[in-house]
């Protein structure tokens, strides 16, 4: 995956999905003590979710292909006095990180993948998480208007994880994902909790 189209989204101001703070779902995960071990934020963008989780005392690595977004995240970390790591990485080759994490966070990455790309992405996620670790996915849903690049159906979300035989889907619930172009209520989303077998 190349970073050029994504990088351009950050060069003239905030990207449409950069809301200047963590997604409410991430705040909810933290409030429910859902993070454990080191945390990997996949497709972290400018790092607002990673910064929030790191501010709670977790070891966090945020990865993205957009170098401009990562530079913004690093600047924000310094300004806020938060210790967090950001690195350029391809979400389809997370095994190249050479590390495994207790928790993976995907807020807005899954729905950027076409249906033919999703099995490879799910396999990449499996390579980066410890056995028994938890993956949280927040993605645009197919309920309501077409709001994103590849809105996801509930059955499709369950199916791609079950087909890999490396995951157990614990829960999928309707949620909202905040963006800069959907108003205060955000867009229809799925929030999935998935365990690595």
TrEMBL record:
Query: What is the originating organism of this protein?
Result: Nocardia colli
Q: Which residues form the Methyltransferase domain?
A: 39-133
Q: Which InterPro entries match?
A: Methyltransf_25, SAM-dependent_MTases_sf, TPMT
* Keywords, ordered alphabetically: Methyltransferase, S-adenosyl-L-methionine, Transferase
- Which terms in the Gene Ontology molecular function aspect does this entry carry? S-adenosylmethionine-dependent methyltransferase activity
Q: Name one GO biological process term.
A: methylation
User: What is the protein named?
Assistant: Class I SAM-dependent methyltransferase
- Any stretches that span the bilayer, and where are they? none
Q: Which domain of life is it from?
A: Bacteria
């Amino acid at each position: 995956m190349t970073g050029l189209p994504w990088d351009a989204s950050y060069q003239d101001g905030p990207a449409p999905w950069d809301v200047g703070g963590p997604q409410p779902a991430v705040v909810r995960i933290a409030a429910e003590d859902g993070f454990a071990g080191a945390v990997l934020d996949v497709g972290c963008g400018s790092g607002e979710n990673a910064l929030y989780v790191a501010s709670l005392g977790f070891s966090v690595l945020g990865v993205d292909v957009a170098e401009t977004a990562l530079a913004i995240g690093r600047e924000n970390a310094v300004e806020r006095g938060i210790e967090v790591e950001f690195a350029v990485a391809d979400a389809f080759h997370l095994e190249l990180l050479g590390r495994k994490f207790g928790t993976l966070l995907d807020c807005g990455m899954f729905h950027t993948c076409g249906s033919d790309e999703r099995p490879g992405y799910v396999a990449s996620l499996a390579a980066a998480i410890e056995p028994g670790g938890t993956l949280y996915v927040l993605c645009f849903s197919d309920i309501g208007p077409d709001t994103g690049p590849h809105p996801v159906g509930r059955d499709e979300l369950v199916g791609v994880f079950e087909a890999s035989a490396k995951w157990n889907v614990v829960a999928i619930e309707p949620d909202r994902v905040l963006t800069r172009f959907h108003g205060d209520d955000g867009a229809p989303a799925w929030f999935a909790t998935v365990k690595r077998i």
